[in-house]
Amino acid sequence: xxxxxxxxxxxxxxxxxxxxxxxxxxxxxxxxxxxxxxxxxxxxxxxxxxxxxxxxxxxxxxxxxxxxxxxxxxxxxxxxxxxxxxxxxxxxxxxxxxxxxxxxxxxxxxxxxxxxxxxxxxxxxxxxxxxxxxxxxxxxxxxxxxxxxxxxxxxxxxxxxxxxxxxxxxxxxxxxxxxxxxxxxxxxxxxxxxxxxxxxxxxxxxxxxxxxxxxxxxxxxxxxxxxxxxxxxxxxxxxxxxxxxxx
Length: 247
What we know:
The chain is an alpha+beta fold. It has helices at residues 3-22, 60-72, 84-91, 131-146, 159-162, 206-220, 232-240, and strands at 27-31, 36-40, 49-51, 105-110, 123-127, 166-173, 176-186, 189-197, 225-231, 244-246. The chain is globular, with a radius of gyration of 19 Å.
C-alpha cells in the first residue's frame, strides 16, 4: 500500500468518523454538491462540521471562492489531507510540508499485525453489544471529549453498532467502566477512535489494553488497515502500538 493510498484512507477515516456524528435522528446533514455540513437540529445537541470537500472539478478561481465561502461559515472544517491542490489553494504553491510538531495533529496508520500486552488481573475488556452498555460507553466519551456535552447520543447513535460500522469497547476496572475505544469499520478500512480513560484511572495502561483488544479484533475480522488522527500526547500511545506517522 503506497503512502498516497494510506493518506487517502486516513482522510476517508476522518470523514467516516464525522459521518457517525451526523447520522442520527437529532442531526441534519446537507450537501450542496461541493461540500457537506452536519449540525444538530434545532434544540438538539451535537457537533457542527464541514466535510467531504469536492473542489477538484472547479477552476482555481471557483475553488478559491468556495474556500472563502466555507471559511465564512465559521464552522470546523476537515480539509482533505491527501490533496496537494487544496493545500496549494489554502497555503500557496510554495508551501512546504513539514513533519508534525507537538502542537499539530498527527496522521497515523497501522497495517496488519498482532500487538500484544499484559492486562492487569482486575481489568476486563468487553465489546459493546447492548443499548445499556452503549450508554456507559457514550457517557465516558462525552465526559472526556466534550466536557459532558452530548455529542454522542446514547440512543440515536446506537444503530451504527447494530450495523457493525461502530465497534465500541469498554475497559472495566474493579467492575467499573473506566476506559473506552472503538473501531469504525468502513468496508474493511478501519479507524481507531474514541480512545479515552476517566481521569482518576489514567496511568494504569487501561487505554493501551482496550486499544490492543480493538486492534486485534479488527485485523482478525479482515481489516486491511487501521488509521487514526491524534495530537502529540495520544500519538505516543499509538506509536508504541506500531502506528506510523504520515504527512
